[in-house]
Structures are given as structure tokens and as C-alpha cells.
Amino acid sequence: MTQTSRRTVLTALATAAVGGPLLGGVAASPAYATDEFDLYTSNTDLYTKLAGQEGTEFARRYKRHEYLDTSLGQRHPYHRTTIMAMHGGGIETGTSELCLGIAGYHPATLAPLQDGHGAHDYWMFEGLRSSGNRDLHVTAKNNDDHVALSMAASSLNVLSLHGCTAAQAGTADPRAVVVGGLNERFKTLLKNAFTTAGIAWRDGNDPAVRDLAGVNPDNPCNRTMLRKGAQLELTTELRAAMFRVNTRAGRAGSTTEVFDRFVTACRSAITTLEQDPDQIVL
Q1: How far apart are CA 38 and CA 33, in angstroms?
Q2: Which of 93, 109, 143, 190 lies 20 to 30 angstroms, CA to CA, from 231?
Q3: The listed CATH number (3.40.630.100, 3.30.365.10, 3.40.50.1110, 3.90.78.10) that belongs to domain 33-64+78-275
Q4: pTM above 0.85, yes or no
């Protein structure tokens, strides 16, 4: 017997009530905002049970920029912001490409962006299966990947990217993003940037979207040096609008102006955040 969660059924009914085809031919699917039906209790559990299948079933990609301090009398620059996509690849589609773009790299070529906003560290976990990638989902608060946690712990800020459905976001515009996390200043900057970019958003503080709020202190987005960060839950429709070819092979090389507007909004918000007084470590 197949076990189905009450939340999945309700989401499906709500999506059906909205009606209409989705952009890019991508069917809406329930996001896993909780671990109610995760198959794996942690990333370590997944890595153990799928041992030897990295590169075929799943992948991990990250970049940590080199920072050196070899001077006795001077303080050198330190790292501030890391971008994460914990459910990239085929799990919550489009989040891998967004992770790279917001970090400052072209998602297809990895060439650095020349937009004046610099580059950030990034970490992502990706589902590589041709189908069934949702089974690889590990809810954020259970992510115990040692590289991901060490990168979060050594960063002042983390921006984490996730996917949800329009029904879960509950916004009038199906192309929307829920802005969550414990860093209210970061959230405000992101919301302002989305408004300027013409991207619909909803505040994760709204009780109606509490499963998407990203406020658990064990969520890696909040396991920073400041113990707070930001999380973005993008609807299926918003992510589909970001790519002309919405497939694993096609997304990175077919980004649209919606992708560009979203990336620019996030990168400008990060640049402003990094000028704040609490972004200085003595």
C-alpha cells in the first residue's frame, strides 16, 4: 500500500482548484517543507545507504574561495555570504542554476559574472535521477553534510534556495517567492529588491506559510556566525519561467530575463547587507 500524507493530498486538491497548465510543461509537485515522509533521516543516512552511487544518483558541488592571512600586523578580508541549494538537480528544479547565478557564476559555463557584485561561496546537493528525485529530499533541519555545515558556520550570512508550489505559497500570483529565515534585515532587503524587480513575494512570517518559513535554528541557513540567515521558497511556476528549456540538460544554457531579474535582486540585496555594521568581524 502506498502511503500518502494528508498535506500532499491537500496540496494536490488546492493545485487542481487553481486550474490551468503550468509554464514549461512542468507539473506542480508538493514541496517537502517538513520531514514527515523523507526516506532518509539525514544527509549522512543518504550517503551511507547510497554509497558508491554519487555521480549517478546524486551529486555534491561546492566552492570555497581562498582567503589567506599571512601578516602579523594586518587584518585581511574574510568571508561573508554562502549560497546554498540543498535540494538541487531534479529535486526542486532550478535551484542549482539559481545557486550558481546568485553566487556570481554563469550556470552553464561557470564564468564569473561581471556585474560588480563579486562572488560568493556556494554549496549544493543535487538529484541526478531521470525520475524519482523527490525521494532524495532531506529536509533542511536534518542536513548534516559536514561541508555544508562548516561553510554555514564560517559565514556571516547564508541564502538558501528551495522550491514549493503556488498552492503552498498561497499567493495571488503563481510566480512568487516566500521569503523566510531568521535574519529580518536580510529578508527586508530581499523583499525590497523583489518588489523593484517586479517579483511577487510573501513573508515567511505569515502563519499560513509556516512550513516554508525557514526559522528552525537547525536549518543551515540559520547556522551562521550570526545565528540567522535567509531562505527563499520559489514556486514551480516562477522557476519554470526562468528557463526556456526546463530540463536538467537544458536549464543552465537557457535562462530567461526572469532568471536574470531574480538573480540580480538577490545579489543586490546581499551587497547592501554586507555593508551593515554587524558584517564586521574584529
Answers
A1: 10
A2: 109
A3: 3.40.630.100
A4: yes
